[in-house]
C-alpha cells in the first residue's frame, strides 16, 4: 500500500519495520496532525445489499462481521482477507455489533422500532447460528431539556422528543458488562454480566440519561459510538448530530458527562487503540477517520472520498460509520446513505455497490 504522507515534511521513522505502518513522528511541528489519505477496499457487499453500518471482529481468527441498516437486513461474516463466509437475514434494521471473545458470540442492536416492533439486543454464535434475544430496550423518554448559554449572557432551551427506541453502539467492559447507546432517547444503557442472562432474566439499567446525549442537529442521531479508555476510568460517547465526543467520568463511581471534543463533523463510531492511546472517530460527514489524543485534540486523519468508481463503488470513504481495529489496520463500514430529500446533492445517491474499507494505522 502506498502511503500519502501529506502532513509530514520529513521522512518518517519506522519503529518496528516497514510492515508496521507509518509512525506518528515528532517533526518539530507539534500542532500538525499526521495525515494519510490512502484507502483500500476490504470488501464489496453482495449485489442488492446496502448501507453497511455496524462492524466487529473475532480476535481469535480475524473474521469481520458487518450489519446492514436497510433492507435486506443482513449480518455478513467475512474472513480476514475480505472473502464472504456466511450471512444471516433479519427482519429489522441492524446498527451496532460487538464481539464477546469469552463466549464466541456477536452482539447486535436490532432497531425494531423503525419497522413497528420492539427494539432489542440479540446475540448469535460466531458462525451465525443460534440467534437469541437478549433484552428489550425500555422506553424511558427524552432526557431533560438542555440549557445552552450564549455570549451575550442569554440562554437557549432545547427540548427533545422521546421518539423511537434506537439502540445503536455496543461496548463491553473488562467485567463482561455490556453498554448500549440509544440515539433517540439520549441514553446509555447497561446490562450487567450479559453473557449469563437471557431475554427473560437480563436487566437493562439506565446507566446515564443526559441532555448531552440527545441532539437537535444533523444527522439526527444523538448518542452513538462507544469506547472505554484503557483503564476504564472513562466511557466515551459520540454524539453524531452535535459533532461531539462526550466523556462519562467513572472514577469513584461518578458518572459526570462532559464534552471531550468538538467540531467532529458527524462523529459516529469510536474505537480505542490501546497501543497508541488514541481514540479513533469516524467523522461520517467529513468522510474521514480522525484520532484524538488524551486532551481531545486531533493528532491524525485517515482517508478521504475521491468520487464514485465506474462500477458504482465509492472510491475511498463515503459516510464512514463504524470502525474496528485488527492488527495494524482499521477497518471501516461505508454507510453511504443519502440523507436529504433533494435530488443530486449527495454522492451517496450514485452508489450502486456498497463497501467496507481498510487503512493502515500510524504508530
What is the compact description of this entry?
The chain is mostly beta strands and 363 residues long. The chain has strands spanning 34-36, 40-44, 52-57, 64-68, 74-78, 84-89, 94-100, 105-110, 120-125, 132-136, 146-149, 155-158, 167-172, 178-182, 187-191, 204-209, 223-228, 234-239, 244-249, 257-261, 267-273, 278-283, 288-292, 298-302, 305-308, 314-316, 320-326, 329-334, 355-360.
Radius of gyration: 20 Å
Specify the number of helices.
0
Distance between the termini: 16 Å
Number of separate strands: 29
In helices, the fraction of residues equals under 10%
Describe this structure in words.
This protein is an all-beta fold. The protein has one domain: 6 Propeller (Neuraminidase). The chain contains no helices and 29 strands. The strands form eight sheets. A five-stranded mixed β-sheet has the order 1-24-23-22-21, with no helix packed on it. A four-stranded antiparallel β-sheet has the order 2-29-28-27, with no helix packed on it. Strands 3-4-5-6 form a four-stranded antiparallel β-sheet, with no helix packed on it. The radius of gyration is 20 Å and the shape is globular. The protein starts with 33 loop residues before the first strand and ends with a strand. The N terminus is likely disordered.
Please describe the topology of this protein.
Elements: E1 34-36, E2 40-44, E3 52-57, E4 64-68, E5 74-78, E6 84-89, E7 94-100, E8 105-110, E9 120-125, E10 132-136, E11 146-149, E12 155-158, E13 167-172, E14 178-182, E15 187-191, E16 204-209, E17 223-228, E18 234-239, E19 244-249, E20 257-261, E21 267-273, E22 278-283, E23 288-292, E24 298-302, E25 305-308, E26 314-316, E27 320-326, E28 329-334, E29 355-360
